[in-house]
């Protein structure tokens, strides 16, 4: 994995509150992502909105040698965390329990074992986490499911989403019973509340790049900021594999490995399956009346492929960098998708639909689509992009949609009639 450091925006940090993690000075510049046309899509956490261009085949990445590992003064490298799909982060282990987290486009974070000191003469662009996080301000909704799966909700004290915005039962319950408190969304956090809670790490979504002043302010207050990039992964299991990053952060590597393998194992039954050749359109209609679709190479299009289908826009934006979605006029969408065998409506942004008529009211053009005429219109449940440990289950639902005449008991898809 390519390693590079993004320099920090802010200057020398002020004194942190007691118990906070120490962030080394140097602030961060990150290229702001393209602003999405539809405001609802922006606030939906960039959950699957951006992708890496690299493809992975599920084989374990070649392990680096000690000579290739990041050299840190006073520390001896031991090994790297094995990864099979993810290429947007790495974790390097050093003797004595030190761990270096590298996130593509976000920087490097050194986790110091509890009770130990950070080594002297570290590069200024490495953020030091002085202890295992115990009071996290979690803004990236896609990370919550990892914490639930690791039985680590007690490490989160603050949320950037209120109870009504959570579709994960454990998260919703924690907000309702007060064990986790709402501390403001990514663009308007309650700094006093965050400080009072002794926050020692903020985990942000990529939406923070639209509000660099918020990231800068948190860092000035001595709160390290880690930006969640799982949605940049090109393979759906690369996104799921981010559970290993949080497992390493919390000292729960074994639990993280078990969670990941549970999802990966579900795809083994599909490994030798012949593609059905059936085409699938995946979209939603935004507030401007345009169809928002995934570009080729996005992890959602890869999910369709793994399920045995073919994404209808297989060449759309494949050579473009940046976001993995784009808005398309309905006439253009009609020209490209009217003959798709299946339609999947993305309700995670626009809200779940109750009937086919409700979808057709969004655009009269849809009534002429092949999938509409043949009764192959499906809707994705709005919880999918929050339930990041379930992508293997979603792929299996898609596979059943493509191969069974009347599949029953699907978890993340339902037919619109």
Could you walk me through the main structural features you see in this protein, from its secondary elements to its overall organization?
This protein is of the alpha/beta class and 417 residues long. It has 2 domains: 39-265, Nitrogenase molybdenum iron protein domain (Rossmann fold), CATH 3.40.50.1980; 272-415, Nitrogenase molybdenum iron protein domain (Rossmann fold, 3-Layer(aba) Sandwich), CATH 3.40.50.1980. Helix content is 26%, strand content 17%. The protein has 14 helices and 17 strands. It has helices spanning 39-43, 141-149, 169-177, 191-196, 212-220, 236-240, 243-250, 253-266, 299-306, 330-337, 347-350, 356-360, 370-373, 391-403, and strands at residues 77-80, 89-94, 98-103, 107-111, 126-129, 136-138, 156-159, 181-182, 201-204, 225-227, 279-285, 291-294, 310-311, 325-328, 342-346, 377-380, 413-415. The strands form 3 sheets. Strands 11, 12, 13, 14, 15, 16 and 17 form a 7-stranded mixed beta sheet that branches. It has a 5-stranded mixed beta sheet with strand order 1-2-3-4-5, with helices on one face. A 5-stranded parallel beta sheet has the order 8-7-6-9-10, sandwiched between helices. α7 packs antiparallel against α8 (253-266) and α8 runs parallel beside α14 (391-403). It is globular and about 65 Å long. Residues 1-57 have low confidence and may be disordered.
């Amino acid at each position: 994995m390519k390693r590079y450091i993004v320099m920090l925006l802010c200057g020398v940090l002020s004194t942190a509150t007691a118990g906070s993690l120490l962030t080394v000075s140097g602030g961060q510049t990150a290229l702001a992502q393209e602003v999405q046309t539809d405001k609802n899509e922006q606030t939906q956490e960039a959950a699957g909105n951006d992708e890496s261009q690299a493809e992975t085949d599920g084989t374990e990445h070649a392990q680096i040698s000690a000579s290739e590992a990041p050299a840190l003064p006073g520390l001896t490298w031991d090994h790297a965390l094995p990864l099979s799909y993810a290429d947007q982060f790495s974790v390097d282990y050093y003797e004595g329990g030190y761990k270096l987290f590298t996130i593509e486009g976000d920087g490097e974070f050194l986790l110091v074992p509890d009770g130990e000191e950070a080594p002297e003469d570290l590069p200024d662009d490495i953020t030091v986490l002085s202890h295992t996080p115990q009071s996290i301000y979690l803004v990236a909704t896609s990370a919550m499911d990892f914490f639930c799966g690791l039985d680590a909700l007690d490490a989160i004290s603050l949320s950037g989403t209120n109870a009504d915005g959570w579709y994960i039962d454990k998260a919703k319950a924690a907000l309702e019973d007060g064990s986790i408190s709402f501390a403001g969304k990514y663009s308007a956090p309650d700094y006093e509340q965050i400080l009072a809670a002794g926050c020692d790490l903020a985990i942000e979504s990529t939406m923070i790049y639209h509000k660099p002043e918020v990231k800068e302010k948190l860092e000035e207050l001595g709160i390290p900021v880690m930006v969640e990039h799982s949605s940049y992964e090109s393979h759906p299991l690369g996104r799921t594999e981010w559970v290993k990053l949080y497992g390493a952060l919390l000292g729960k590597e074994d639990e993280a490995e078990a969670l990941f393998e549970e999802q990966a194992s579900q795809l083994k039954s599909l490994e030798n399956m012949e593609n059905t050749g059936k085409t699938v359109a995946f979209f939603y209609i935004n507030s401007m009346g345009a169809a928002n679709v995934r570009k080729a190479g996005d992890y959602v299009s890869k999910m369709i492929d793994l399920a045995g289908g073919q994404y209808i826009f297989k060449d759309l934006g494949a050579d473009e960098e940046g976001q993995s979605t784009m808005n398309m006029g309905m006439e253009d969408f009609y020209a490209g998708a009217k003959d798709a065998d299946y339609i999947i409506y993305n309700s995670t942004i626009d809200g779940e639909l109750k009937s086919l008529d409700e979808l057709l009211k969004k655009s009269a053009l849809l009534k002429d689509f092949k999938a509409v005429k043949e009764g192959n219109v499906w809707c994705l449940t709005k919880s999918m992009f929050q339930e990041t440990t379930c992508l293997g289950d979603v792929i299996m639902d898609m596979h059943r949609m493509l191969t069974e005449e009347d599949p029953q008991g699907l978890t993340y898809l339902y037919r619109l009639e």
